[in-house]
Amino acid sequence: MKDKKVRWGIAGLGKIARRFANDLTQQADNAELSAVAARDSKRAAGFAGEYGCRTSYGSYQALAQAPEIDAVYIATIHPFHKSMAELFLTHGKHVLVEKPAFTNTKDWDEMSALAEKKGLLLVEAMKSVAFPAYRQLRQFIRDNDVDINSVQAYFGNWHEFDITQQIFNPDLCGGATLDVAVYALWLYADLCALTQKRWVKPSVQYSKDNDTSDVDENVEFLFEGEMNGRVGASITRNLKREAIIKGPDTEIMIHGKWWNPTVIDIEHRGERITIEIPATGGGFEYEIEHVSSLILNRKTESDWMPGSTSRQVISVMETSLTEQGFQHLIRQS
After folding, report:
1. Strand 150-156 versus strand 243-247 pairing type
2. Is 175 exposed, middle or buried (0-12, 13-18, 19+ CB in 10 A)?
3. Considering the entire predicted model, what is its pTM?
4. In which element (H, E) is residue 266 found?
5. Neighbouring residues of 211: CB distance < 8 A, sequence distance ≥ 6
6. Smallest Cα–Cα separation from 306: which of 225, 224, 194?
7. If both were cysteines, with which of 151, 152, 215, 225 could 200 make a disulfide (CB 3.0 to 4.6 Å apart)?
8. d(C-alpha 212, C-alpha 192), whole Å
9. Cβ–Cβ contacts within 10 Å for residue 78, how many?
């Protein structure tokens, strides 16, 4: 198994697929790009040529049936994740699906059951928790039995209002919650799991900056309990980028784009520590190598990106959007 490589396919060939393909072909030692697929065969062939990929398909069905593929990265927009995951799992392919994996828990449960039945991996592509700096932070928290009682993290970038953009289009599951709040919710959820803190239902505040918008443009989730949390996101405002994690005798700051963590300062019981591990590529290489390693070792669950955390985050997003009247955003898949 040592010299084997996982043969990856990519379904959906937009911007994020390009970033994934670049890291897959340039940075991952235990994986290779074997095929790509889009609904347009010329587009698929062009993409394949850019990354030295041998095979391209003009349909997702053809990729699902391809014998040379072990795993598929789903990079289509949110509404199509469920049908794509079902297609590839049914045909025996491991699945790494871009975040949010699905927009409601029903889809997650159905696809998780299918993956389990087939003995396959189903993993949500939350790349931030696979970065080496973050893995080292988790190890420090575990080794030192660090108590954490608050997390603050926001992810927001200004975009000009344009209904033709996916993030502003309700029919394409746009909005801040599904697009970027998923990162902050994942950070909070992962730290709760690590420190064995119980979740409580958050209070949620939504607002929008464009009167005619039909999606949630700004959102803040407020958790009160064993671990307090103030996490949120925006698609119309630039928000501060550091994530701040605190405990009775600890303060941790993840600097810069905390969702691509490379520099982390820790002050713990009077000691100051800096974790600094620059990314070797665009940041996708770590989740690619992690999932590929799981496949090579015949694992069916990721301990870095566990299904239980994905389901928990999806449930919070689904509940909050539903309660705020955004049902049309979450029933597309």
Report:
1. antiparallel
2. buried
3. 0.95
4. strand 263-268
5. none
6. 194
7. 225
8. 37
9. 24
Q: Which residue has the tokens 């100051």?
A: 272
Residues 6+ apart with CB under 8 A from 265: 252, 253, 255, 272, 273, 274
Report DSSP letters for 186-204, one per residue.
Answer: HHHHHHHHHHTPPP-PPEE
Give, in degrees to the nearest 5, the angle at Cα 182 between 261 and 256: 25
Q: Which two tokens stand for residue 31?
A: 């994986």
Residue 25 burial (CB count, 10 A)? 17
Q: Report the distance separating Cα 174 and Cα 329, nearest Å.
A: 7
Asked if 204 and 222 touch (Cβ cutoff 8 Å), the reply is: yes
Q: What is the number of other CB atoms lying within 10 angstroms of the CB of residue 214?
A: 17
Amino acid of residue 15: K
pLDDT in tens, 224-240: 999 999 999 999 999 99
The residues with which 132 forms a beta bridge, in sequence order, are none
- What strands, in cross-sheet order, belong to the sheet with 243-247? 203-207, 218-223, 228-234, 150-156, 243-247, 250-254, 263-268, 271-276
pLDDT at 326: 84
Dihedral (CA of 166, 169, 173, 176) sign? positive
Coil, strand or helix at 97 = strand
Nearest one of 73, 2, 79 to 36, comparing CA atoms: 73
84-to-12, 79, 102, 125, 317 alpha-carbon distances in Å: 10, 10, 11, 15, 21
Question: Can you point out the beta strands (E) in 75-217?
Answer: 94-98, 122-125, 150-156, 203-207
10 in helix, strand or coil? strand
Residue 47 near residue 37, CB atoms below 8 Å:
no
CB atoms within 10 A of CB 14: 14
